[in-house]
Recover the amino acids of this structure.
């Protein structure tokens, strides 16, 4: 597994609870102070005690800001689409926060910096907040890390959160866990792009946007996606009803108002019970992720000979893995 599960990096004691006035920070955040927002996001990002205290303080007075996730193959136009959506939302006088996540990169990577540049037109608008989240070694998984940033942005009074993720498979599904509505963005002319939109991602799609509708092949792409949708059996929208397949031209804004409307309609349909159930699933996933990290850690500190013997016994079926885990965790 990746460094995502390294507990030492997750809690680096860089954030000393005595150093930050967490209640004060939460208060200033709620009042919409820009500096407090940046500081709170950093605290949430670092993790550990301070982050926990902050998230707890914010939980006392929760707002439910809709979270719309955009995911899909590289280059399909997610960032451009987010920028166009921001434009539409601003025309409707909504305050927008956009978070870009790159789970494949331990630090802010090139794609995210590219995003910044592309979203530059909104840079001077005080009612637009754009930030990239580096998927650092947070104990508890990526979804938790993003959820912390969303909670902070929520408290700061934004009306909607747009979330872009670059990455494949599991990480996109993790992002979908924290979004009320997930838009899968495809585009014609990306070669194998439709193959890249694998069944797993299609399952979490609430809306399909075929972007770059100005290019040839957009109708074909839309038809192919509709056919793939027909085959899926689970997925949130399969339960809720039809998944809209929309075509957009992010560069001109064509179809973007319709996309924003569809996202607003679906997120308004999410019930508090569904939100609660999702939060509970996240908590369970978090425990499971931490359990995995603790076991890996316990294995690391075993003397090499003991470790080899244990691994060999489990491999050969001679040891009960559950019992081995219990012994490892009990020290
Ligand atoms: N012709 C056309 N080009 C577009 C459209 N939308 C985006 N593009 C272009 O497609 C390229 C990729 O767009 P991005 O918005 O960076 O795509 P992305 O999905 O965010 O890419 P990653 O973050 O790298 O995964 C850019 O050159 C955009 O200008 C569109 O509707 N039509
Ligand atoms: Mg992008």
């Amino acid at each position: 597994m990746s460094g995502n599960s390294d507990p030492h990096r997750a809690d680096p004691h860089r954030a000393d609870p005595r150093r930050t006035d967490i209640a004060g920070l939460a208060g200033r955040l709620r009042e919409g102070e820009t500096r407090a927002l940046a500081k709170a996001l950093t605290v949430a990002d670092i993790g550990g005690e301070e982050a926990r205290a902050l998230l707890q303080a914010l939980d006392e007075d929760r707002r439910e800001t809709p979270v719309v996730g955009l995911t899909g193959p590289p280059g399909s136009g997610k960032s451009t689409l987010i920028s166009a959506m921001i434009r539409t939302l601003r025309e409707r006088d909504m305050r927008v926060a956009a978070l870009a996540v790159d789970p494949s990169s331990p630090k802010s990577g090139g794609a995210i910096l590219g995003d910044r540049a592309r979203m530059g037109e909104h840079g001077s608008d005080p009612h637009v907040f754009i930030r990239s989240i580096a998927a650092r070694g947070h104990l508890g998984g990526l979804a938790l890390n993003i959820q912390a940033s969303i909670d902070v942005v929520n408290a700061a009074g934004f009306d909607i959160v747009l979330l872009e993720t670059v990455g494949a498979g599991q990480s996109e599904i993790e992002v979908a866990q924290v979004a009320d509505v997930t838009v899968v963005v495809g585009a014609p002319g990306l070669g194998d792009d439709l193959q890249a939109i694998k069944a797993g991602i299609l399952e979490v799609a609430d809306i399909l946007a075929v972007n770059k509708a100005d290019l040839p092949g957009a109708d074909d792409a839309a038809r192919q996606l509709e056919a793939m949708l027909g085959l899926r059996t689970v997925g949130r929208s399969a339960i809720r009803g039809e998944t809209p397949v929309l075509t957009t031209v992010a560069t001109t804004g064509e179809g973007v108002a319709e996309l924003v409307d569809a996202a607003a309609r679906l997120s308004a349909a999410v019930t508090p019970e569904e939100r609660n159930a999702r939060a509970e699933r996240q908590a369970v996933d978090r425990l499971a992720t931490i359990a995995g990290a603790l076991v890996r850690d316990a294995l690391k500190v075993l003397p090499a000979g003991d470790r080899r013997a244990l691994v060999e016994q489990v491999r050969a079926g001679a040891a009960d893995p559950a019992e081995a885990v219990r012994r490892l965790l009990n020290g």
Residues 78-79, 111, 115, 164, 166 surround magnesium ion (ligand 2) (CB under 6 Å). The chain has two domains: 61-270, 282-329.
